[in-house]
Amino acid sequence: MALTSEEAWTLIKEVTDSYGASINAARQDGSAGRLRLSDVTYRLDNATGSLTGTIPSIELVEQTGGDVRLTMSDGYDMLLNNVAPDGSVAEIAMRISQKDLAVILGGTPQETTMSYGASEIGVSVASWKVNGTARPVQAQIMLGGYQGSYDVSRSAETRIDSTAGADRVSLSFEASAPDDQGRLNLRSTIEGVTAQWSGDLAGLSRLSDPNAALDATGADTSVAFSHSGSDTRMSFDDPTQNAQASASSSAGSMRMDLSPRSLSFGGTSKGLSLRLSGSDIPVPELTAALDEADYSIALPVMQSDVPQDFALSVSLLGLSVSEAMWRFIDPTKVIPRDPARLSVDLSGKARWLINIFDPAAVPDPSRPAADLRSLDINGLTLAVGGAELTGEGGFRFENDKPSPLGGGPKPVGTLDLTLTGGYALMDKLTQIGVLARQQTMGARMMMGLFAKPGDGPDTLQSRIEITEDGALMANGQRLQ
Question: In whole angstroms, what is the distance from residue 466 CA to residue 415 CA?
Fold first, then answer.
């Protein structure tokens, strides 16, 4: 079934309306399957400002196969107004440019696919004013090899599934302080960018209403992003100091899922490196590298009488620093240079006692905003300087009883810990002067109270337990 140019324009207007914006043409001229739109205005308002612009012309032309081809002006202007919390008003004028833009709409008014591509799309700042005073700012974003598609399904709610990608995304930003008392320069490129988004636009438009934001028919959204490499360089200087920094990665990804009941998000970065230098850094250059960083969080979002699942995990693998930094604290190479690693895996159950999306629901300082019912330490690992700490355990919480350890609900459960190479690391830290000998002796005495020898050399084990009657135990010995 063919799509007409008028139906395509109606679809564009309805999709735009569904996320709280508006698009309108000052004049429409239609004839023989062709619709010309002149002085097309766009407006999006939110609580702190607005984004407005005018596209000189858009043309929709019906194709032989039943699709509609959209072309538009190669460039147009947009204006962003924003009111900061301190009351200052920023006014940013931008120029949008697009080269070889091609947009094809196909399908039916109920099920439509919009495919698009451009060899280059750019957004550049023409002027930046704060309270009417121009600021010396230059900024630009360029997307090369840009392409993507929207699948629009209009049933009870308007839903969009979209994909987009760019061969390269480039960002540049320069700003100067008044009277040339300082200058900031930022350059960044991201290679092989891909993005996916799907969601109910009508539900998303209700996010501005905290009471209706995530009800049973509210937002249901997924967002994913990935890249195949990034490089960022920054420099700052003023009459008294300067600093330079660069960061890069070989790949990365991020994902967020939002449902009426829960929010989850996470990401991965690989091949990270960081370089720092400047007048306030005591060595010529500090460098650090990280083989991989991962994180994920899942938590409930609705006020509920029933405890809901939550989870948190963080992993940092292969953390290393430059030899210049090592020489600064350990010139004789007493401490092993093995890359450090950290991993934490937590899960449990909790429930919100307030509507966290309602600004009026300010929590009472004398009462918690949430009930924590259980916390499981599924895994804990920290390895650094030749020592390694591992642990696992779990606790449940009695919210109607005070904790014997201080504030918060009463916990009941155990935590098992194993430390390998701890004594050796303390001795080496003492040898290079990081720890005083008295501190090392005190630490050894404390470890003797909380731990017992393990099966291997320089291995300590400890079971920390909080009992039903509120006792704090370490390896069966009562500490409190």
Answer: 9
